[in-house]
Amino acid sequence: MVSMPTISTSPDPVIDFGIARAISTLDVLPSRLDIPLVSDNAEDRRYLRAGVSEQYGRWRKDSVPHLIEIMDRLHPDDPCTHITVMKSVQSGVTTSVAENGIVLWVCYRLGSILYLTSGEKVGRIRSSSSIDTTIDDSGMADLVNPMSRRVVQKRADSALYKEFEGGIKLQIASYGSIQSIKSNTYQLIIADEWDEAPPEISDQGDIAGVIEGRTMAARLYKILEISTPTRMETSRIYKSYLAGDQRKYYVPCPICMAYQVLTLGDRTDVTGKKSGLIFALEKRDGGEVLDPKSVRYICQHCGGEIFEASKPQMLKQGEWRPTTGKPTDPRRHSYHSPGLISPFLSWERICQQFVHTKFGKEVLLFKDFTINSLGNPWAAVKSAASWEVLRDRAEDYVMGEVPEGALRLYGGVDVQADRLEMAVWGIGRGMEQWLIDYHIFTGDTSDLGTACWVSLEQAARRKYRILGAECEISIVAIDCGWDPKEGRSKDWGAKPHTVYQYIHAKEDIFCAIRGTSEIRTSFDVIKKTKIFSGITRRFDLNTGILKEMILDHIGDVAGPMALHMPKWRMQSDKKRYVGDELFRQMLSERYQEIAPGRFGWRKIYDRNEVWDTCIYAIGMAYAEGINHWDADAWAAYVQGLKEAAPH
Q1: CA dihedral 80, 82, 83, 84 (to 10 degrees)
Q2: Which strand (E) or helix (H) includes residue 305?
Q3: How far is CA 548 from CA 105, 426, 542, in A?
Q4: Closest CA to 140 of 35, 242, 47, 252
Q5: How far is the C-alpha of 424 from the C-alpha of 433, rounded, in Å?
Q6: Cys staple from 71: which of 38, 275, 356, 423, with CB 3.0 to 4.6 Å?
Q7: Could you give the domains of the chain?
Q8: DSSP class of residue 5?
Q9: Which residue(s) pair with 163 in the sheet?
Q10: What CA–CA distance (Å, rounded) separates 546 from 553?
């Protein structure tokens, strides 16, 4: 009789380890082989609660037909590895593309996800307001591991980190903290508001390369970049858009069915008439406002009138078409999603915003409109007019006198080692600007006891006659970006600052100001910053946008933002020509490429103090908010001047 071998029931650690590895491998495989498209999966699973999206209820493809192709690029079968979306505000891209992608990748265990935001605070808000609700309302709550199985104390469901069944991880991080996760690999990386990323990470180089490096160990990976653009020369999303195939959304005219890209009414059709989005104004309350009934789209092919009621059907029949056949990599697809094709941004509102910019003449508002409504990068001023042009149209008024139109005075001071230079500018309705006075006080500026500082205060407290009233300068801004005592630029912690010491006890007339590029939003021309030692206020000035605004109107001879210069100054009781130096310095800078791929303001003349003091003085007008004064506010101010004048 042959005895049968017995099977040991005692645990074999080698066998158990092999089984555990096999199970863990199976866990991370997709739960089904027939993975649906991102859009199909979202339509089956997603519910948008009120307050999360512009359209709440079950998510539907027909709510954002122009985004279907983009989100389906996130499917693992699509060969595309990089998807770039340069968008307007209220585009629906984050809700429909990024979040729908997360749902598919988690539900079908496609890989771990890194969601990048501009800052940790933004990430926490994004997590609680969108990511958590997406998990709860898409049937994913049961997939979340409430606690790590290995270490009980380790949380697997926090604001910035979540673990799901199958070993899938979702990490929310800021661009500034990405170096802390450099050892991890992610299959899906979502770079939200990509233009908010810093130029580089300390000791690691460009952040785009760092992000790409987090996918190097992954066979399947996708990188989704989403952002409204910023300045054309430095915008990350615009650079990524140009690296792709630059797709635009073509929609058919409901009348002739010819396809076209929707634009503002800035081109002509086949008959020579204006086409694109157009509107008319109507007179109301003494002014002109948008006539809502006039908003329509003129087909560039047939000249037919298209009203917004046709937009949903046009979007359903639209198609993305590449506009270049030479992307840097055929696996890169880039999309431009402007406000004109957004289901959540009406044509009427776009037209109203354009009217608010005074048809592009208000540079600050037009920049915001270009970026946020049109989804286009802002193209900065590249060059200034010739200083001879400014000199030749100098006006017949004497420096030191306030000409008609200038109603409120502001001063700006530039600090050099051997002198102080001060300009006084008059501001009128519509931010029209006149140079009123210019002083140079020589002396050792590192010593507050020298005569130059005493003379500065005397000049700052001088009174000028406006409409018969004796008027003081409202406020004089002194540049604190350089300290003559230390011979160092910018400010540095708690060390004493010469300008701060001078301003102390003189803040009724003086304030500190610093030019900076750190102000990101287009509406922030100037903002008050934290209190510094010895003074109660300091302002940071967005010099770049203010320079653009002034130079954009440098050729205007009158009207809003027009700039006026005097022809004469008094010397020995006689009128003398002010000299070419004043005009050269006013146009001493231009915006240009200052290094390969880097743009900025560069001096084209060795002296620019007149230009700097102009920027500081006019910046203070924005600090006081008179750029927002309406006709009634100006009328009340003028009436006050007349009442203050001696009779």
Answers
A1: -150
A2: strand 305-306
A3: 45, 19, 10
A4: 47
A5: 10
A6: 38
A7: 43-246 (3.40.50.300), 393-636 (3.30.420.240)
A8: P
A9: 169
A10: 11
